[in-house]
Amino acid sequence: MAEMVRKSSSDEIINHWIMAVSCILLIISGYGFLFKLEAVGALFGGFNTMKTVHNWLGVVFIVSLLYSMRHYLKDALEFDADDRQWFKVAGGYLSHKVKVPPMGKYNPGQKLYYLAIVAAGIAIALSGFAIWLIQDNAGLILFAHLVHNVAFCIFIIAVPVHIYLGTLANPGTFQIMVNGMVPLEVAKKRYPKWMKAIGKM
pLDDT tens digits for 50-75? Predict the structure, then answer.
């Protein structure tokens, strides 16, 4: 049996799934609100019920997002020369002929994705709370709806791409968010700088 190395802790995995499920349900219900889709509203028991569910799922999502910072934020804010070179060759996604520089625990694309989700998540949460809790300031509510919708657009583009890259595009990656483990040989190939840092190279 292949030797395994742990890439994600148990609380990281649990929090990731809480964030993922709440995010997907928020996107579905938000899409229903945006286009006034009766079929989507019916899935939640009507628009009034969906509004309540949407609001409280927003609370779950932002708490989960803020908690995730203890796992990812430090790494996501650190970029080095190899990361910059990774951008120049587009991570090798556009051509298998280019030489991809050695990566740490997360590649620059994952780092930027996370930072975008944090920024859009905070924006969508603050604007959502304004829409939910502030009823007597028309100008603020109008601005909040604008921010909410722009952030929503970021999510409906970024999240499907993230799901694709974490499943079909990179076979074996999905298991990391199931059991937190990755085969040592795969880790040495994909994350050599991280493996060296933890003494596995």
Answer: 999 999 999 999 999 999 999 999 99
